[in-house]
């Protein structure tokens, strides 16, 4: 499967390179979001987190990075529920699409 090849041949190697070159007690901030193809999502977020932990990183937290000027970033359905997978709600009730930024520590 092409996704498996990409995940193992590129994603894993990129995270491994980051781990190898990063000094101890330093952080990696990894911005990646699941990709929707048709009605299915490629699990980029879950796979990144799992692979990073397998390599030796410690997961610290996920920061939501709002995408303010992206077309369709603030769409909601008739019930007011956001239509995007990852969203953040601001104090003024504005909803915006966001992407996760995973924070990992190399101890």
Oligomer: single chain
The secondary-structure class comes to: alpha+beta
Number of helices: 2
Q: What average pLDDT do the residues reach?
A: 85
| Succession of helices and strands | HEEEHEEE
How many beta-strand runs? 6
The fraction of residues assigned to DSSP E strands is 25-35%
Helical coverage, percent range: 25-40%
Largest sheet: 4 strands, antiparallel
Radius of gyration: 16 Å
Descriptors for this entry?
107 residues, alpha+beta, four-stranded antiparallel β-sheet, two-stranded antiparallel ribbon, 6 strands, flat
Helix and strand arrangement:
Blueprint: H1 2-21, E1 26-31, E2 35-37, E3 40-42, H2 44-55, E4 58-66, E5 87-89, E6 95-106
Antiparallel strand pairs: 1-6, 2-3, 4-6, 5-6
Mind explaining what this structure looks like?
The protein is of the alpha+beta class and 107 residues long. Helix content is 30%, strand content 34%. It contains two helices and six strands; from the N terminus they run αβββαβββ. The strands form two sheets. Strands 1, 4, 5 and 6 form a four-stranded antiparallel beta sheet that branches. It has a two-stranded antiparallel sheet with strand order 2-3. A hairpin with a 2-residue loop joins strand 2 (35-37) and strand 3. The longest helix has 20 residues, at 2-21.
């Amino acid at each position: 499967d092409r996704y498996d090849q990409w995940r193992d041949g590129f994603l894993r190697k990129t995270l491994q390179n980051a781990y190898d070159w990063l000094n101890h007690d330093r952080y990696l901030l990894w911005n990646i979001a699941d990709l929707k193809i048709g009605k299915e999502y490629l699990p980029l977020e879950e796979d990144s987190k799992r692979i990073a932990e397998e390599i030796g990183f410690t997961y610290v937290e996920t920061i939501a990075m709002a995408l303010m000027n992206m077309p369709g970033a603030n769409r909601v359905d008739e019930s007011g529920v956001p239509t995007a997978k990852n969203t953040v709600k601001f104090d003024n009730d504005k909803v915006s699409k966001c992407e996760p930024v995973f924070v990992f520590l190399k101890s």
